[in-house]
Amino acid sequence: MSNFAIRILNLLAGTFIFALGIVLSIKANVGYAPWEVFHVGLAITTGMSIGVTTIVAGAVILIIVTACGEKIGLGTICSIVLTGVFIDLIFMLNIIPLAVNLIIGIAMLIAGLFIISIGSYFYIKSAFGAGPRDNLMIVLNRKTKLPVGVCRSIVELSATLAGWMLGGMVGIGTVISVIAIGFCIQITFAVLKFDPAAVEHETLKQTMKRYWFSKKMS
Length: 218
Prior knowledge:
This protein is an all-alpha fold. It is 77% helix and 0% strand.
């Protein structure tokens, strides 16, 4: 149970840090990352907060990937709900100022990408399952047999286009995000000596069985 508690703390820390990185990248004001283009565009169109649109979009994706046979974990659900809640909380606290020029904006964006990478480290380390958007990429790969990289590009380009049509900001930051996020994650994981491929994720069913078994044994 102590290990379970540590994993839960990693999950919570990961989702909060991830949300912090997202808000920082939005406040950079130089163009949003692909999914943020969509979330902000949806928020502009519907009047909902960015956090709520993040939750709604994640829930819809969750339904789609579950219907396609993908297994979900506790982390999948938490990443949908908590990331959105944390995003709105950070915006409400107004602890991150809006960038006043391009240089500061780009610096904030890159810092945000590294923070997102650190959040991903804690989230993946918890081993509670992939996020819904990662599962969407997996579903597309399984259905079309296209390479994973191509599927990731299709998903993110689709999110960017849809978000742009809804009013989300597309700019130099969008291009930087697409190009740099992979390098930021690679550098972060290398510094932390973390191999995500070595992590065996639990499904929600497996987590529930392990929890109830441990509870009965105690």
